[in-house]
Amino acid sequence: MGEAPAFFVDHLEDGYTNGFGVKSEPKNRDTSVQIGDRSFVIGGNHEGNPLFLGVQIHDKITNKWSSPTVLGTGPKPCKGYSAIVLPKGRILVIKKGSASDDSIWFLEVDTPFIREQKKLLGREVVAWSKGVRGNAEKPIVISGPSGVGKGTLISMLMKEFPSMFGFSVSHTTRAPRCMEKNGVHYHFTDKTVMEKEIKDGKFLEFASVHGNLYGTSIESVEVVTDSGKRCILDIDVQGARSVKASSLDAIFIFVCPPSMKELEDRLRARGTETEEQIQKRLRNAEAEIKAGKSSGIFEHILYNDNLEECYKNLKNLLGINDLAPVNGVEAVEGIDLPKEHTVTKMDDKILIQETGEGTKNKMIVLDLSSINGGAPGRTRGIVLDTVKSS
Ligand SMILES: Nc1ncnc2c1ncn2[C@@H]1O[C@H](COP(=O)(O)OP(=O)(O)OP(=O)(O)O)[C@@H](O)[C@H]1O
Ligand SMILES: Nc1nc2c(ncn2[C@@H]2O[C@H](COP(=O)(O)O)[C@@H](O)[C@H]2O)c(=O)[nH]1
Known about the structure:
The chain is about 25% helix and about 35% strand. It is built from eight helices and 24 strands. α6 crosses α7. The site of adenosine-5'-triphosphate has 14 residues, from α2, α6 and α8.
């Protein structure tokens, strides 16, 4: 059943007092959305940075303002926004007068991911996720013990389908191997720098693996998704568990070796670790394989005995074969969002009606019934259509 037109948008005409009791200048471009006892004010910029849109929270009960940690890359500040409350702790933010590939954004304020991050960071957190039109495929998480062949399988996939898949480049504190390039294989980083970035909420997941810190930054996943490619994450089981708890909505694959002996042979033949490191990786492998098979994280388990066969099985479970199209994202017609508009929510549909003199009163329907994914990363499955007047 449709709902009555609901305008949750409240443009702040009169200014507001911030947490320090200072009355701000009226900001016509700021937009406020109320959820329960809290108002989320979207506008201005983030910590004085003109490139990042600001978010502030006002708690009615305590009458206090706070500046949350903002995760993910949000929309760039623009002339104005419409905002509407969605179920499950999300706010839909529509950029006025913008092109469709940059117009639909979601601010998560109370999703499972946000609750988890709040616990982790010990403060208020919100997260941005950009709306992506069309049926972009889920990201892929690949885990398995060191030396099982994850990297080899991923390289084969990226070589065969270069425009379909993109690799999420992780951060690590381990030293680069001789052929590894910074920014390509890993972002090689310093422990203190990485720990600070983790504290600042820049990481989707992180874990201590074989004595070093590894992590997937939110930006690494966004970069791949924004290039229109399906994102592949090569991470350990602890990282996979964290991603499973996030809103990323990925496919989880665990790769097993045919035997521990074969795993050891492969690690030795690769020749990238010292004997001590090999022993450590092998010790960890037993626990990883046990967790991979029994944790309920992974929907698919692949055995990498014969490489070609395993690769074929990987392609089968991803639903691709040699005849598959080379790009995973459908091309969609561009639709510009009108500068002046009203927003009305009708169940899963948002009606965006152009207003103002001398306009064509264009009506756009934003259908959210098939959305999936979310912050960090992208909210996929957006359908945006112009209603043709007869
Ligand atoms: N099916 C296979 N049969 C024999 N050797 C293989 C097979 N798959 C991969 N290898 C070899 O095993 C070694 C380890 O593979 P790879 O580096 O891809 O493992 P990995 O799982 O990515 O390891 P890590 O987690 O340490 O990054 C490589 O030298 C690779 O060529
Ligand atoms: N939790 C995460 N684990 C990661 C990440 N990037 C890589 N890894 C895992 O670490 C081991 C060792 O990798 P190596 O390159 O040193 O051989 C391997 O199992 C990877 O899957 C990450 O971002 N997060």
